[in-house]
Design brief:
By secondary structure, the protein is α/β, with parallel strands linked by helices. The protein has helices spanning about 5-15, 20-30, 35-40, 55-75, 85-95, 100-110, 115-125, 130-145, 155-165, 170-180, 190-195, 255-270, 285, 290-295, 315-325, 335-350, 365-379; strands spanning about 215-225, 230-240, 245-250, 275-280, 300-305.
């Protein structure tokens, strides 16, 4: 009995029938060359006899025809010829990258995929076309994901974007969703509901008064547009004195952003056991990676109710102050200027700006007084 399934065999034969070389089939399917050749011989795929008309052979031929149609479409969309210099062909492939699969593009111009990927990586820092396109599509994917109430997966989001005239592929959309921590809520929704209900508790219930530092932290992510770019700002605030204990700015609203911001605060503040971390129910805070990380640290997560911004009003109020008192009042020439302004405002907010909650004392002063009084009482 063969150790390979019919699905594995059929996939290998379909790839070969569509024009993929045996070497590529072996590499992609991870099946020995001798086994692949045996299947090919048994199916008469390398002979002169015509294929028998079977559903399987029909699918193979259809796959090959679809592939040839895509190659023709690629060649028609460019003035570049097969005899053009390699660097010209690579530029054309890069321009079409995302509209067609890399396999189709490279085969159309007789360029190896390895050569193209090396070219792409070499030029990433020199040419921002790739980064700009990914930034545009990241926003488009997020907008569609939100518009359809987070129910669409990569395949359907791709269909919606193509319908709107934004040519892309499912693979490209899926990579963006993974980067941003987005996923369809349909995936295991029922199991997730029963498993996560106990974790999605609101431990604060809008009670934002605490007695000691590092007892409760709140966090949120907001965005700011600058020169057709979107920047995401993540902050973590200690509720005791309303002090911003960590912040980061990123081009992506991802799990990586929230995790790195929390890690920075955790390493700096070194909170004791029992810390509560309160946020909204954004996917970057509820991702498996982030929740597992907090669980390992013994941190209890608390979540606002859906569509109730008052449940996280401290973080919301901070962003309102940041934008109204600083960001909206300046015209930033560069990203560096913008990042510097965020850094400087947070220093100002913590050390100089009077805070109503603190009876017009700064967050730093309130914390200093707390630790000073504790030292006196312990003597």
């Amino acid at each position: 009995m063969s150790k390979y399934t019919n699905e594995q065999k059929e996939k290998a034969l379909e790839l070969y029938a569509s024009g993929v070389s045996v070497a590529s089939v072996v590499k992609e399917c991870k099946i020995p060359r001798s086994t692949v050749y045996g299947w090919i011989s048994a199916e008469n795929l390398n002979g002169n006899d015509e294929l028998a008309f079977t559903p399987k052979n029909f699918r193979m031929l259809k796959t090959k025809a679809d592939k040839l149609e895509q190659i023709v479409a690629v060649l028609k969309s460019s003035d570049c010829t097969l005899n053009a210099p390699l660097h010209e062909k690579l530029k054309v492939i890069k321009k079409l990258y995302g509209q067609y699969s890399v396999h189709i593009l490279c085969e159309a111009f007789s360029v190896s995929r390895g050569t193209f990927y090396n070219y792409l990586l070499r030029n990433k820092n020199e040419n921002t076309t790739y980064a700009k396109r990914r930034e545009v599509f990241s926003k488009l994917v997020k907008d569609v994901h939100d518009e359809f109430n987070q129910i669409l997966g990569a395949k359907k989001i791709t269909a919606v974007l193509n319908e709107l005239g934004h040519r892309t592929t499912e693979k490209y959309v899926r990579s963006i969703m993974q980067d941003m921590g987005l996923a369809s809520i349909r995936q295991g929704a029922k199991a997730f509901y029963h498993k996560e209900q106990s974790k999605a508790k609101n431990h604060l219930n809008q009670n934002f008064k605490v007695d000691t530092p590092n007892e409760v932290w709140v966090s949120d992510v907001s965005f700011f547009h600058l020169h057709k770019h979107t920047y995401y700002i993540c902050v973590i605030i200690d509720l005791f004195a309303r002090k911003v204990v960590s912040h980061k700015v990123s081009h992506k609203n991802s799990t990586q952003l929230t995790k790195s911001t929390f890690k920075q605060a955790y390493l700096t503040r070194k909170p004791k056991d029992g810390l509560i971390f309160h946020t909204d129910q954004g996917s970057n805070y509820r991702s498996f990676t982030f929740m597992s990380y907090l669980k390992e640290l013994g941190v209890t997560q608390s979540f606002s109710r859906a569509h109730i911004p008052y449940d996280n009003s401290v973080a919301e109020a901070f962003f309102s102050s940041l934008k109204q008192e600083d960001l909206y009042r300046h015209k930033f020439k560069t990203e560096k200027d913008f990042r510097k302004a965020v850094d400087e405002y947070i220093v100002f907010y913590n050390t100089k700006r009077p805070h109503t909650y603190n009876k017009n004392k700064t967050p730093v002063k309130v914390e200093d007084e707390f630790y000073s009084n504790n030292e006196k009482n312990s003597q």
